[in-house]
Amino acid sequence: MKQKLGSLLRDRLVWFVALGLGLFAIDYASERRLENRILIDLPLVEKLVAQWEGQTKRRPNAQELDALVEGYIREEILVREARRLGLDDEDVIIRRRLAQKVEFFLDENNPPELPDKAGLQKWFEQNRAAYDTPVKLTWRHIYASDEAEARALLTRVQGMEAKNWRSLGQPFMLNRAYTSQDQLEMSQIMGADFAATMFDGKTATPANGWVGPVRSAYGWHLVAVDTRYEIRAARFEAIAEKLARDWANEQARVAKLEAWRELRAGYEIELVPVEAP
Fold first, then answer.
1. Phi, then psi, of 228 in degrees rounded to 5
2. Model confidence over 105-141: pLDDT tens digits?
3. Which CATH number fits domain 133-229: 3.10.50.40, 3.30.70.980, 3.40.50.10950, 1.10.10.10?
4. Which pTM does this prediction carry?
5. Cα–Cα–Cα angle for 82, 69, 91, rounded to 5 degrees
């Protein structure tokens, strides 16, 4: 036994393995110490103070600063323990939050500089239709249970005084009259087909009085347009500030999209075929 032990002690390979295990143990212990070490330095304290000032609009006193540091230490310990336990793996909320933070980085990357007046006016001309005030209608309606009832009501309402129209038809869950409503607003309430009929400039006009039946997402209606407001062209000077904000938002959107494309191009996506059962 002593001979075997002496032979092992003289074997260089054994010493090499032992030395490697020793170094590994030292390195492991060092990493564990680093994992359990929390550094509180000046940049961190300044960051905590800045966050406090952003919320309270004042600097923290000594007691509040101690509480901020202790709160950071508590949070850091809990986060490290969560990672050690693997709690961040496959957690949907954490994944979404991390993705959202990267989205913020993409938003803040290279904010666009505003163009000069000529450049902004050129952009306005290219997008003028989005700034013109659209056609709007002030209108009323009578709701019927079906198309036949609506047709019967049309004869009655045309022979009545204007103020008595609310007494006709069925109860309706929404308003019976709307003021200065554009086609998009109307379509969101009554449906796209109803709005298209109302805004075609023929069926429902102030001169035609009560017309119908017109079908909506709810059923059948008689409609009357009291006022039709035609398109008003936008003026550059009146909306210059809004144009500048919209231009900046659009440039930021385009820049963010391009940044995402660059990120996407750096990843290789492999689709694993689904095997038939």
1. -120, 120
2. 776 666 667 778 888 888 888 888 888 888 999 999 9
3. 3.10.50.40
4. 0.51
5. 20
